[in-house]
Design brief:
single chain, about 425 residues, alpha/beta, TIM Barrel, 6-stranded mixed sheet, 18 strands, binds N-carbamoyl-L-aspartate, binds zinc ion
Length: about 425
Amino acid sequence: MFLIKGGVVVNHDGRKELDVRINDGLISEIGHDLEAKEGEEVINAAGKFILPGAIDVHVHMRDLGASHKEDYKTGTTAAIHGGVTTVFEMPNSNPPTIDQESLELKLKAVDERAICDMKVYVGATPDNLDILPELTKHPRVAGIKAYLGSSTGNLLFDNKDLWDRLLSENKDTLVAVHAECECMINQNTEKFKDIHDPEIHSVIRGNDVAEAATRKIIEVGFKHNARLHIAHMSTKEELFAVKEYKEKGYTNLSCEVCPHHLFFTTNDYDKLSTYLRVNPPVRSKEDRNALWEDGIALGVVDIYATDHAPHTVEEKEQDYWKAPSGMPAVQEAGVLLMSKVHEGELSLEKFVELRSFKPAEIYRLEDRGYIKEGLRADIAIWDIEKPFKITKDWLKSKCGWSNYEGFDCFGEVQHVFVEGEKVL
Ligand code: NCD
Ligand code: ZN
Ligand code: ZN
């Protein structure tokens, strides 16, 4: 039992100085000048902000067959240090999460090792469409993931005839897509196969590659009013496509942006080389600015997720064609965005909307995403004034590196509660 006193409670719709009582895993009481009860630990939050724990809807925590990169313990430890209390893991694991057996295997490992709440996606394959509706009834399945273009792992769902089936037969389940056009990737791969400069990645998987797949899948989703979520949106073209269909009344359409597309551009290959290789790739300044200005500021972007995708240094140090795509970020993402709050470019309410409230709403998690009586006590207490440098020492991911090392930020996560337990 805890009593958080003197802090400012922040929800997506405003902030108030209030005390918060935690009991039995829940936020049991919110009010002015609450008195500590016997046996309650009092947390002094004067000058601090009490935020709903973040929900990261896009992570790869590896484990099982890829536990040399990350495991559920190290990955979720990194998460809580970043103020994240719920993560949704993608199905491109080893083994891939595509049937009952692989789902149970993953959930068992999660129960043994994860220290924040973790839900999982199941992957769509050309062969499992018959079982998906049953599989997604599992309460710990966050949704379906479909790789319309190939990425790390070998889950591919690029047969356009099946996109219609997937979205019409699973209308009530959220379907998140990796939207890049496989045929264009293959053509460009052939065309540029002799170039080894990592910067070629942003050409092989150019803006048009993302736009083609994104537009196509949105058209299919719109036809069925399916719950469609565009993962890691990286270009202005995709942004305008999402905006266009939202304006047409496609209310079940949502999208996310990730830190690497908001904080890096193709100029950063010089310094970061293959460490910056990620799918979809980093883009131009113009795209990056559009994500901030037309995407986040104007409200087209719903969610800020990380696509936390750790690989080892040895793996990343290889030649462009061998180095795997993806980079870690689950821990760093919060403080990066909080720095924008500190700079006055983003409100604290918007931060909470992108990180907690909207993910809960879009994924229909009614028990979290808000600091409110009766909800799960998933809470992060932030000191947002504190200068904060991202250092190797602070990082908890097993992969042991980050493209954000050395970044000077603002904001420190000082306490984290997951379902009423003080985990940080
Ligand atoms: C991800 C991974 O490594 O699992 N890599 C990446 O480049 N983003 C897969 C994915 O999200 O596409
Ligand atoms: Zn992806
Ligand atoms: Zn991913």
